[in-house]
């Protein structure tokens, strides 16, 4: 009977580990910004599975670096502010980026500057009629 309990515990542990690797453990995160189309956020899990989210450029109000206090430490993260369809000056949603990898502030600043350059080019480009 002890060996049966031990076998069940090992089996449950293995199933839990597989579920963790497939659905939770993010191995890599990437951000692709194309001024004329939008922003693509891709997360690659340890199991090889990929999750991709696309945000149209018309929905993007701005990209900002936000800060939060976590466990007596200040952490910084990049966010996309989505424009509120009813109020052009308002924000409908805040989409945090790089939640799993938590890059340092100097890395976030480089990504932020690149995103702002692309957003500025998009705003100054003539709009098709």
UniProtKB/TrEMBL annotation:
Domain Phosphatidylinositol N-acetylglucosaminyltransferase subunit H conserved span(s) in chain numbering: 30-99
Cleavable signal peptide: none
Residues annotated as transmembrane: 6-24
Lineage summary: Eukaryota, Metazoa, Chordata, Craniata, Vertebrata
GO CC field: glycosylphosphatidylinositol-N-acetylglucosaminyltransferase (GPI-GnT) complex
Top-level taxon of the source organism: Eukaryota
Pathway(s) the chain acts in: Glycolipid biosynthesis; glycosylphosphatidylinositol-anchor biosynthesis
Native species: Motacilla alba (White wagtail)
Annotated GO MF terms: transferase activity
Keywords of the record: Membrane, Transferase, Transmembrane, Transmembrane helix
Family to which this protein belongs: Belongs to the PIGH family.
Name the record gives this protein: PIGH acetylglucosaminyltransferase
């Amino acid at each position: 009977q002890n060996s049966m309990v031990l076998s069940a515990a090992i089996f449950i542990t293995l199933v839990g580990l597989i579920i963790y690797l497939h659905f939770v453990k993010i191995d890599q995160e990437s951000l692709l910004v194309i001024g004329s189309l939008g922003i693509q956020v891709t997360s690659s899990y340890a199991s090889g599975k990929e999750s991709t989210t696309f945000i149209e450029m018309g929905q993007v109000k701005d990209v900002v670096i936000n800060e939060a206090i976590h466990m007596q430490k200040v952490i910084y993260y990049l966010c996309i502010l989505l424009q509120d369809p009813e109020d052009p000056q308002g924000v409908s949603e805040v989409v945090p980026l790089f939640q799993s990898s938590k890059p340092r502030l100097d890395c976030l600043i480089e990504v932020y500057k690149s995103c702002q350059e692309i957003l500025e080019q998009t705003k100054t480009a003539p709009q098709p009629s």
